[in-house]
Amino acid sequence: MTTAQYNECVDRYSDGVYRFILKNIRDEDRARDVVQDSFEKMWVKVKEISFEKARSYLFTTAYHTMIDSIRKDKHQTPMEETTLKDHGYRDEYAGLQEILEKALGRLPADQRSVVLLRDYEGYDYREIGKITGLSESQVKVYIYRARIALKKYIGSMDAVI
User: Which of 15, 64, 103, 150 makes a 20 to 30 Å CA pair with 27?
Assistant: First the structure.
């Protein structure tokens, strides 16, 4: 891949990769760091990656970088976050977007990732399998189970509205 093609990849895919990571970890700063690390890893291997495979490479790298970041920070919670969560209260209706985010947050990480890749980013099952390291049939199972869990959590649209 040439430098011009790399720059085109940054223009084309940075927003999508950022949205995918942000939906998974819900922390803007960490999401930016993961995206930046992913593009840095791609730059290091720019001569080895073809332009046609760049999107898949970026999402795969971002996914694995995100998993590493989650594992590293698993047992650390800043004091401000725990204090605010324990003392905050909201009584107003926040909207469908918040309900969906809450429902997605209740899913296991693998299920959440495959649903986001499929429904938000538009990847097919085979591509999701390559990104996550799962078989195509396992991807389908995770998506099915995630959709069932989302349906149970959200219920009918009448209950939400």
Answer: 150
The two tokens of residue 148 are 């069932």
What would the pLDDT profile of 29-56 be if each residue is shown by its tens digit?
A: 889 999 999 999 999 988 898 888 888 8
Domain boundary (24, 50, 76) is at 76
Q: Structural domain of residue 58, as residue ranges?
A: 1-76
Tokens of 158: 């009448």
Which residue, among 156, 70, 150, 93, has the nearest Cα to 116 in the 3D structure? Answer: 150
What confidence score (pLDDT) does residue 27 get? 84
Give the residue ranges of the chain where pLDDT is below 70.
Answer: 75-94, 156-161
Task: Phi first, then psi: give them for residue 53, nearest 5 degrees.
Answer: -100, 5
Closest CA to 13 of 41, 54, 51: 54
Same domain, 122 and 155: yes
Q: How many domains does the chain have?
A: 2
